[in-house]
Amino acid sequence: xxxxxxxxxxxxxxxxxxxxxxxxxxxxxxxxxxxxxxxxxxxxxxxxxxxxxxxxxxxxxxxxxxxxxxxxxxxxxxxxxxxxxxxxxxxxxxxxxxxxxxxxxxxxxxxxxxxxxxxxxxxxxxxxxxxxxxxxxxxxxxxxxxxxxxxxxxxxxxxxxxxxxxxxxxxxxxxxxxxxxxxxxxxxxxxxxxxxxxxxxxxxxxxxxxxxxxxxxxxxxxxxxxxxxxxxxxxxxxxxxxxxxxxxxxxxxxxxxxxxxxxxxxxxxxxxxxxxxxxxxxxxxxxxxxxxxxxxxxxxxxx
Length: 303
What we know:
Strand order of the largest sheet: 4-3-5-10-6-9
Structural class: alpha/beta
Number of strands: 10
CATH architecture of the largest domain: 3-Layer(aba) Sandwich
Order of helices and strands: HHHEEHEHHEEEEHEHEHEH
Strand content: 15-25%
Shape: elongated
CATH superfamily of the largest domain: Periplasmic binding protein-like II
Distance between the termini: 50 Å
CATH topology of the largest domain: D-Maltodextrin-Binding Protein, domain 2
CATH class of the largest domain: Alpha Beta
């Protein structure tokens, strides 16, 4: 279906509007776009005429956007960014395609990055662009081909590949546990507990696994990333539940010590997720097939 012309303003006029919203003055817009101020004004006037509504308030030669125009500028800014990124990808034209991948910061750095040189060697024609995401991704609104994320295996409209289940271990700096491992899991409650924002029920789940369910929620400092909670544990601020693969080196060197028990498998896992509409994209296929050889095998036993 063809879109009516009045709903497709020129890129030049949209750039002028977006820049005025961001920069706040016609002179700054003119400098950024390498135009005269009168040319900027004409583009804005043409946009107003085409849209059939006032968008720019003119007061003593100072231009400001109406409230509706500011909202419009915020929306078209995303569209202009997408057009720019698509144009850049078209110009690069990698023969193996481009994969735009969302990753979790710590898992991406500690698990994926050490493995990526092999992928680059095997698929030098694939361009891999990565962006970190702590919040849930949205394939419908973000230019992503795939994502590595932690959670359950339920994402509507997607397929997934299990990468790794998560097993955690309670660790602390030696100064917090000078006598070594504690005799009972409840003894940990005498120490300050550290929490990770993305795993709000982790401690309750861990105590349940020790057959020592908590009667109430435990308090403690909350961190948004494993990198920061690791530093807090290393500096003796409290006991942290850490994925075992993240603290192997720290435990081996004695910088952190297990406070009680060994690794406990938790609910949720790390997955590679991709929208079904992108399933046959050559870059997605290459990355998925390569990761299959690195992934943890499915465990048929009930969890």
